[in-house]
Amino acid sequence: MKRMGIVCCCVLTLMLLAVPVFAQQSPTAASPVGSSATASSPDVPQAVTDKLNQLEQKVTAAQYSADNAWMLVSAALVLMMTGPGLALFYGGLVRQKNVLAIMMQSFVLMALITVLWALVGYSLCFGEGHFIGNFQMALLRGVGALPNPDYAGTIPQSTFMVYQLMFAIITPALITGATAERMKFSATVLFMTLWFFVVYAPMAHMVWGKGGFLNASLGGRFPTLDFAGGTVVHVTSGVSALVCALYLGKRVGYPKQPMPPHSLVLSFTGACLLWVGWFGFNAGSALASNGLASSAFVATHFGAAAAAIGWSLAEWVKNGRPSALGAISGAVAGLVAITPAAGFVAPMPALAIGFIAGLFCFWMVTKFKAVFGYDDALDAFGVHGAGGTIGAILTGVFAQTVINPIFGEGKAVGGLDGHWGQVGNQLAGVVMAWVLALVGTIIILKVVDVTVGLRVSEEHEVEGLDITLHGEEGYNLEA
Amino acid sequence: MMKIEAIIQPSRFESVKDALLEMGVEGMTVTEVRGHGRQKGHTEVYRGREYTVDLLPKVKLEVVLPDQLANRAVDAILKSAKTGKIGDGKIFLSRVEEAIRIRNEERGESAL
What is the DSSP letter of A117? Predict the structure, then answer.
């Protein structure tokens, strides 16, 4: 009986010690996994010590397996957000003659970014440094089955690496919503390659990388809370999208000629896939199959739901009818806004963040865009730039230590805890993302413009990019 | 011989077709078309952008009939296509000089 008591105690202690280390999680939990809590003492016979050591190994292995399973599924879910999710969402919103071109832009990023990531991308994002990582993991040197305790102590680094890759794929893909129906394919490929190095890699590193300038748990100057990429993914891509829309100019015929979405059925399907995939994006960002993942899962779902209602209500009041496009756009806006907050906020604040984002993005897309007259064809800025910005700031308001004690056990995290200074830190992160995206994108656009040229000819634009750039049609209904 | 071209609401097509078959019309040609008369169009709103869709979907039905059947057919169409609202469509009548059945080169009303 007494022996069993000792075993139970040891197993419990082990389980507590074996809490994994997340990208954005309390440093107090950063204890070395597998530390021997069963140091032999004169009172404990050798057989018991051996047994306990075996148990320790088994417990650790079980946890590794559970976490790894969830993280592999999450990685797949995040890839599903780009293809088919985003490809369908955007594909339905363009005119019939450009459906393959926009889908192809998402798809090529699945291939292109993967290769860049394997060569140097992962190292630049997650190697050590203030503003960008070093080359220590170039060609994925040392990235294998062993965990990297700086980031995720209970999953193979390969899993962490491939999970993060999926984020790097979807981020530039979001920008294609602003350049849709007029940018050359060659220009898109060159632009995205440069953008990955100039904007994504530094931003991802600063927020999530070891020693990053904005990293909240690994020694950042301005600890910005960004659980799953509100600033890294949505603010950078959204702001870059705005710059692209302004630089490229309007589509031929915009805004006089009607350019309605060619298939809201595709968009609807895509938006629902995005919603489901987002569980991998946000809940997966806990980097373990634990309570924090569940909390982030709930917040994500609640944020999307409240935002769909917010946008639909606004539309109902303003236009007299709630539209399907409005409802799905609202859900995506909510998912964007909850992204930085997912692992820090309780369910009720998640509803609030979603609802506010739904209303705010509705206003950005319908009013703000109309006043300034830029042609952000599929509203990449109105949804991702605006939603990401508001979400990042609201994270500073609603983050709570009971959900995620990232600054240490019991220490105030956000405004609700009384730490209003966090809103300032959030603003620092947002400003950094805006400035980096603005400056980086302008330079890249200039380079691409003078080398391969950005826009297709007016003739090609009128004929449609599917035929002129790819030699195909999306719908050969009579074939 | 008379040719009747009726441009009608797509939603009325089935009842018009039934009414014509019932009165003994044996063949017809139907096309999905777009157009507008006084009805103009409607507006659609996508993310706050309003589009006026002024060409609306209609069904065009063409029948060529012997003179004595033509008037009854017009009545049948009028009765079955009417909803009383703007956008119900139009009927055009014209004289047909000749009809030829391609299979056996029959001519005139017997070719109908």
Answer: I
- Please state whether A87 falls in left (phi above 0), alpha (psi between -120 and 50) or beta: alpha
At residue A30, the pLDDT reads: 39
- Beta-carbon contacts of B75 under 8 Å, excluding residues fewer than 6 positions away, are none
Over chain B (112 residues), the average pLDDT of each successive run of 10 is 96 95 92 86 87 89 94 95 91 96 93 88
Are the C-beta atoms of A236 and A200 separated by less than 8 Å?
yes
Q: How far is CA A325 from CA A222, A365, A475, B51, in A?
A: 38, 12, 22, 15
Q: How confident is the model at residue A25 (pLDDT cuts 50, 70, 90)?
A: low
Q: Which residues of B touch A255 (CB under 8 A)?
A: 49
Domain B2-111, CATH: 3.30.70.120
- Tell me what the pLDDT averaged over chain A comes to: 92
Mean pLDDT calculated for residue range A198-208:
95
Among positive and negative, which fits the CA dihedral A215, A217, A222, A228? positive
Task: Give whole-number Cα distances, A248 to A178, A240, A252, A453, B62, in Å.
Answer: 9, 12, 11, 10, 49
Residue whose pair of structure tokens reads 């009842």 in the numeric block: B15
Q: How many CB atoms lie within 10 A of CB A4?
A: 8
d(Cα A350, Cα A358) in Å, to the nearest integer?
Answer: 12
Chain A residue with CA closest to B54: the answer is A258
Q: Which residues pair with B62 in a beta bridge?
A: B5, B29
Task: Answer whether A472's CB lies under 8 Å from A105's CB.
Answer: no
What residue type is B49 in one-letter code?
A: R
Give the pLDDT band (50/70/90) at residue A14. Answer: very low
- Contact status, residue A469 vs residue A215, Cβ threshold 8 Å: no
The mean pLDDT value for A186-192 works out to 98
pLDDT at A15 over 70: no
Domains in chain A with CATH codes: 2-60 (no CATH), 71-470 (1.10.3430.10)
SS3 B91: strand
Q: pTM here?
A: 0.86
Structure ipTM: 0.76
Among A254, A263, A316, A319, which would you mutate to test the B interface (most chain B Cβ atoms within 10 Å of its Cβ)? A319
- CA separation for the pair A298, A276 (Å, rounded): 12
Note the pLDDT of residue B36. Answer: 85
Residue in B47, B52, B53 closest to A365 by CB: B47
Q: Do A366 and B48 touch (CB under 8 A)?
A: yes
Best of A323, A359, A383, A477 to disrupt the B interface by mutation (most B CBs within 10 Å)? A323
A57 touches chain B (CB under 8 A): no
How far is CA B77 from each of CA A146, B7, B28, B88, rounded to the nearest angstrom? 79, 10, 13, 11
